[in-house]
Design a protein that fits this description.
2 domains, two-stranded antiparallel sheet, Na+/H+ antiporter like fold, 18 helices, mainly alpha
């Protein structure tokens, strides 16, 4: 008899794509939490210097006359995280085409809430850091970590309505899109337009593949690698290539779903027409029929859907843990931690992620609902929206990513930012969970 972890048991009988997405995000959040704790333990142990040596080890690749030489942490942040951003792109595309963002009447509340949840934290950070060297970090408290936030909400079980979970997912997706735009527009120091044009050319090739009905993933992968390289050389952060590439992946199936049933019935009838062998082995033609059925099942699912489902596991088990191990390993001097938290950068992030997200998300939601622009999610209350807004203050993955871009080369400000992000994410997660678990009541 198989033993199920609590989050697995909750999803054991769930089959819809959206609920599989929630399951994957919950698992990612729990793995991310574990690897973050491990990174913090290593960074505050006698192994800290070994840890630093490993993540700063230089890895070099030569492509003709071009040379790429970066540290291991840089390869993780610019290379592996491109896969993470590719998956974010697929999620954004799905939400826009068939998800909650496809219906403007349903989408208006999470869209407005997400915009408020990005603008208010950025303004608070700027207010605290105006005129200082840390002012460029205004994008850090704008982000919400979708995996951590959804994990906290899903683990509350029946205490929150499915519509409230959907609200948070849509909000987080819009937030991710906003973070991608901010990274592309505001955290690019120098643009080499020749490489940018080459990257654009690669994207057009991928779009052409889509238009010509190419559903095999390999051609997109090969061209996508070149696109990533050209984006890296252009000066725009290479992970943006992942998001852009996702929009070129076909979202329509090769075979219309309506045709699958009859075709499968015909193939199964042909399969049954062969006599059963005495040793119960299959006829060679039966094996070919089964492969044909499998190919048709794959064809009725779009490449975008297959990739999103297939990438969740490697992203959850490899990409995100490696990112956490490389970036969350902060050596903390507990004697001076109070002083660090009161630094403008740390304080701006903490106040922005907690107070800013609550004011931005809950405040804008309240105004939108009271003015009739939007409606509360079914079975939810404004008190629960407040709890969700608090969970929106869990910045972590994207916030750390933006911090490294905002303060590149300034280890002291990056340290202050990471202390602020960890502190704010912990406090926001605890506040949101406790509020929804013990205080907020459903409608």
């Amino acid at each position: 008899m198989r033993m199920y972890a609590p989050w697995e048991r909750a999803f054991k009988k769930v089959y819809t794509p959206f609920e599989h997405f929630l399951h994957a995000q919950t698992t990612t959040g729990l793995i991310l939490m574990g690897t973050t704790i491990i990174a913090l333990i290593i960074a505050n142990s006698p192994f800290y210097e070994i840890y630093q040596h490993i993540i700063h080890t230089k890895i070099e690749f030569d492509i003709g006359s071009l040379q790429i030489k970066n540290s291991l942490s840089h390869w993780i942040n610019d290379g592996l995280m491109a896969i993470f951003f590719f998956m974010i792109g697929l999620e954004i595309k799905r939400e826009i085409l068939v998800g909650e963002l496809s219906n403007i009447k349903v989408a208006i509340l999470p869209i407005l809430a997400a915009i408020g949840g990005m603008i208010v934290p950025a303004l608070i950070f700027m207010g605290i850091n105006s005129g200082t060297i840390g002012a460029s970090g205004w994008g850090i408290p704008m982000a919400t970590d979708i995996a951590f936030a959804i994990s906290a909400l899903v683990l509350l079980g029946r205490r929150v309505s499915p519509a409230l979970v959907t609200f948070l997912v849509a909000l987080a997706i819009v937030d991710d899109l906003g973070a991608v735009v901010v990274i592309a527009l505001f955290y690019t120091s120098q643009i080499h337009f020749d490489f940018l044009l080459l990257a654009g050319g690669m994207f057009l090739i991928m779009v052409s593949f889509n238009r010509f009905g190419i559903h095999a993933i390999l051609p997109y992968f090969i061209v996508g690698i070149f696109m990533w390289f050209f984006m890296l050389e252009s000066g725009i952060h290479a992970t943006i290539a992942g998001v852009i590439a996702a929009f070129a992946i076909p979202s329509k199936p090769k075979i219309p779903p309506i045709d699958l049933t009859q075709q499968t019935k015909n193939l199964l009838e042909e399969y049954d027409s062969y006599p059963v062998a005495t040793d119960h082995t299959m006829h060679e033609q039966q094996k070919a029929i089964l492969q044909n059925i499998k190919d048709r099942i794959d064809a009725v699912s779009s490449p975008a859907t297959r990739l999103e489902q297939e990438l969740h596991l490697p992203v959850s088990l490899i990409v995100i843990p490696l990112f956490a191990l490389a970036n969350a390993g902060i050596h903390i001097n507990f004697a001076s931690i109070a002083h660090v938290i009161l630094e403008p950068v740390s304080l701006g992030i903490i106040v922005g992620l907690i107070g800013g997200k609550i004011l931005g998300i809950a405040g804008v939601s309240f105004v939108a609902i009271k003015t009739g622009l939007a409606k509360l999610p079914q079975g939810s209350s404004m008190s629960q929206i407040f709890g969700v807004a608090a969970l929106g203050g869990i910045g972590f993955t994207m916030s750390i990513f933006v911090a490294d871009l905002a303060f590149v080369g300034n280890s002291e400000l990056i340290f202050q930012a990471k202390i602020g992000i960890l502190s704010a994410s912990l406090l926001a997660g605890a506040l949101g969970f406790i509020w929804l678990r013990f205080i907020a009541k459903p409608a």
